[in-house]
Amino acid sequence: MQIYKVGGAVRDRLLGKPVTDIDWVVVGATAEEMLAKGFRPVGADFPVFLHPKSGEEYALARTERKSGRGYGGFTFHASPEVTLEEDLIRRDLTINAMAEDDQQNITDPYHGQRDLEARLLRHVSSAFAEDPLRVLRVARFAARYAALGFTVAPETIELMRQLSESGELQALTAERSWKEISRALLEDQPQVFIEVLRECGALRILMPEVEALFGVPQPEAHHPEIDTGVHTLSVLEQSALHRQPLTVRWACLLHDLGKGLTPEEEWPRHIAHENKGLKLIKAVNERFKAPKDCQELALLVGQYHTHGHRALELKPSTLLELLQSFDVYRRPQRFEEFIAACEMDARGRKGLEQRSYPQADYLRGAATAARSVAVQPLLEKGFKGPELGEAIKRERLKALKVYKEAASA
Question: Residue 225: CB partners within 8 Å, gap ≥ 6?
Fold first, then answer.
């Protein structure tokens, strides 16, 4: 029995990056031997075991062959005869197909170290094309390591393009797709994820609503970058630079989908794109079964982001409607995330990345003013039921009028 560290732990150590999760592969052992040593089996599909003390995953060396469509369409074979090289060749990228023994000796049959030095994300073998999830994985790795200068090898892009055209991407489950998408959006350069998907033709299959934004112009006075797709990537980039949570990053990606529906004769204006885009945002949300908080914020940002930009001009009654829409009284954090998404949208414009965004503090102040209205005095006056709701609304409107006057003074 021989045990090796494999995959990301080896890759990241060689890159000088912190190693968090460690995967192990066991060569020359049987499941019975693992059980006899106290390892606990995980699931029924894979020969994977948990270490009796550390709880880390140890997988028996295995081969695999394609037996159906999609991510799960594989038959695995694990036996003591499977070599380390045979196990490594089934992996996605050369930089993930290295192993390390307990003396830190590297086994690198597919030149992962060479590709680390060349800053290339390259597939290990043609078997790469058997798993459609790898299109998303490679794009995610490109986003993770873009800052180190990594790019995807042209031959790997070509394989990804073939996968995109094969129809295999449609076989991916929403859950598996969302796991890769959400992880990619939380990388340091999530815009690279979208760029790579677009380059290999996968964005057109997975998110045609986002693909449709490229080549659509916007008024240069407001958008020096002009192209709506380029703007979307810039907004996503800003959301990462400002360490925004996943909810905000998802909303940033989808906020302008309505502009993809504008007839060409109306370009570069996009009248009512906010409401037009809601059905598209809803479709993307449902396609990937995004978490509820991501879905809700994306729809609200899509509908109201231009309200955020015009916050200082809004009438008190419109401001109150905006606050009510977000339920700022019970969901203050969601309104904070809306403000963040609006600020990222404002900064995601060529040459305007450092611009100030006074609307943020103004909106926060408005929310504070509306929340400051006390309910108890109205109860003491005898208001109840629907009348109480109307009375609260009137008082909040008064508070917002006072706030706006003070802010304008």
Answer: 231, 234, 349, 350
Three-state secondary-structure class, residue 278: helix
Q: Where are the domains of the chain?
A: 1-114, 372-408
70: pLDDT strictly greater than 80:
no
Q: Which amino acid is at 233?
A: L
Report the sign of the C-alpha dihedral through residues 112, 113, 114, 117, in that order: positive
Q: How many CA atoms lie within 13 A of 307 on its CB side?
A: 22
Residues 303-314 have a mean pLDDT of: 97
> 324, 367 in Cβ contact below 8 A?
no
Nearest in space to 288 (alpha carbons), one of 255, 254, 243: 254
Q: Provide the residue type at 154 as one letter.
A: P
pTM assigned to the model: 0.93
Convert the pLDDT of each residue in 29-49 to its tens digit.
998 999 999 999 986 667 899
CATH of domain 1-114: 3.30.460.10
Q: Which helix (H) or strand (E) holds 58?
A: strand 57-60
Other beta carbons within 10 angstroms of residue 337's beta carbon come to 22
pLDDT given at position 64 = 73
| β-strand partners of 181 | none
- Which residues contact residue 141 at a Cβ distance below 8 angstroms, ignoring those fewer than 6 apart? 93, 121, 150
How would you class 256 by CB atoms within 10 Å of its CB: exposed for 0-12, middle for 13-18, buried for 19 or more? Answer: buried
131-160 residue pLDDT tens:
899 999 999 999 999 999 999 999 999 999
Secondary structure of 200-246 in HEC code, one letter for each residue: CCHHHHHCHHHHCCCCCECCCCCCCCCEHHHHHHHHHHHHHHCCCCH
For residue 216, the Cα-to-chain-centroid distance in whole angstroms is 23
* Orientation of helix 174-185 relative to helix 133-145, angle to 10°: 10
Task: Give CA–CA dist 247/265, Å, rounded.
Answer: 34
